[in-house]
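Last lecture ended with a question: if I hand you only a sequence, what can you say about the shape of the protein? Today we answer it with a concrete record. The protein is Indole-3-acetic acid-amido synthetase GH3.6. Below, first the input exactly as provided, then the predicted structure, then a couple of comments.
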Amino acid sequence: MPTIEEELGRRSLLYSLLMPVMSQFVPGLDKGKGMYFLFIKSEAKTPSGLVARPVLTSYYKSTHFKDRPYDPYTNYTSPNETILCPDSYQSMYSQMLCGLCQHKEVLRVGAVFASGFIRAIKFLEKHWRLLCNDIRTGTIDSQITDQSVREAVMKILKPDPKLADFIEAECSKDSWQGIITRLWPNTKYVDVIVTGTMSQYIPTLDYYTNGLPLVCTMYASSECYFGVNLNPLCKPSEVSYTLIPTMAYFEFLPVQRNNGVNSSISVPKTLNEKEQQELVDLVDVKLGQEYELVVTTYSGLYRYRVGDVLRVAGFKNNAPQFNFICRKNVVLCIDSDKTDEVELQNAVKNAVNHFLPFDATLAEYTSYADTTTIPGHYVLYWELSLNGTTPIPPSVFEDCCLTIEESLNSVYRQGRVCDKSIGPLEIKIVEPGTFDKLMDYAISLGASINQYKTPRCVKFAPIVELLNSRAVSSFFSPKCPKWFPGHKQWINMN
Ligand code: AMP
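The predicted structure:
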């Protein structure tokens, strides 16, 4: 999506509102630092020569971020050079090292999404010995080859055997429960988005942070930044965002429950005439009503459906506040990937071609975003009809996994290949009759037999358990799918 230079100024304005709000609830945040794991991603050129990159990469590379004046409220443990390092391993390693060195100063920790923060904890679990060695000796591991990163880290890193011993003692304990509060004892809250699909990570975060407040400060997208949470210490399930009316022109398309939200039809990004007539202005939204968010942006999107469903939760003075309900049509999400039903369907269709020589067909399938593994991964449950006599070798199922991954969108593949934020896709073959059992179960809970449709994605724990209990074999994608930095969906005209 196209964007323009002045848009970054508008986005910076929204960022500048976050700490004044936060400070009303948590005093003393100017007395220490924030340990935030922030990353850039690789960029590409469009055929016309414009830069194409994710919005946050644009922001971190802009002067708004890089040359921000000193402010005790936006003082981070990660030097800019470590955030701007294009190599994700070196970036994570150096940010973690700097965070550990300054552990007593850290008052808040975070990342953009919950998944990113958990990835940082997993990284620490894997690499703490190397990190301790660096802290003990005051030198940086040789795998960190980026000169600007080395120089920036050396300004912070001093030999500190006592700190190395302390980290080693904590990290080598059997349990990692509360590791965040143990290593960064002055942390007051975790700043990560845990609304929407990210709520799946709340139990894991609670475990590692000993139940520190999880704070969702803002609501934003590549197209446009939307709003802030004026009550940041509320429970994740109660978070509401107040839209900042100067970010874009906001309009709202009323959503009837059971009418579209989880429909499998891919919704166009534009509105038809009837829908245009139904639009409601920001000042006219009604308490309790659900709406699809529609924006007209300064950079040129006109009445564009963001794809999010919001519910009016209340008002701050006259400004409406919205709960984030869901993203229309997205069935699977681990990190910044969003896979809708149509895309999943096409990917599965491509994969089942591998069965042709075996006279087998796919009778039913569903999917699950498994975040119990770190990184999380997509799981597909497949029930097969086997007509042929030749058994299907495991390599064919592995090929199916890879074909599905190859068929998914570039954000998914980038997560798999480049950021390693998504693990290998898994196919679980379930016993014949499993999907009938699934239907029986849904009907026992009140689903209509006439209208029952196999869900293409499952989230409800008893259903996941039912599927897992009937799985007879499991296969993983044997390698990473192809991903080229040229296939991007974000375009930035800076
Ligand atoms: P992207 O354009 O890839 O950055 O994704 C933007 C989308 O992420 C939004 O349209 C939402 O669906 C989701 N998102 C962003 N911020 C939040 C939030 N605070 N809570 C829930 N979902 C969010």
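Comments.
1. DSSP finds 16 helices and 20 strands in the chain.
2. Confidence is low (pLDDT under 50) at residues 258-266, 487-494.
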